[in-house]
Amino acid sequence: MLESGLEKRLANLVPMKPGQNPHTTKRERIAAKLAELIAEYFPSGGYSVMDAARLKLAAQHYVDAETCRDPVTRQRATRCAEYLLSKLRPPAAPRIPSAAD
User: Mean of the pLDDT values across residues 85-91?
Assistant: First the structure.
């Protein structure tokens, strides 16, 4: 079915779909950012509970920095997220058996 340009523009004016609200959209943004951070820092898994909590909190700060209008608050949230990410420990590398073993 073909839609005219006016119908498309009117459809895009609806801010949210049924069941969506600002809280759910923010939660979806945080989940997407969290998945991105996990893929970047722990591509093969192996992160601890503390690392997961830091990743989630860093994702929340990054989303706040993206949506914030105040530059000082934006910078503060970004630096806090970077600080949390600097505390992450990479998973332990598998031990290579030596010739003596």
Answer: 85
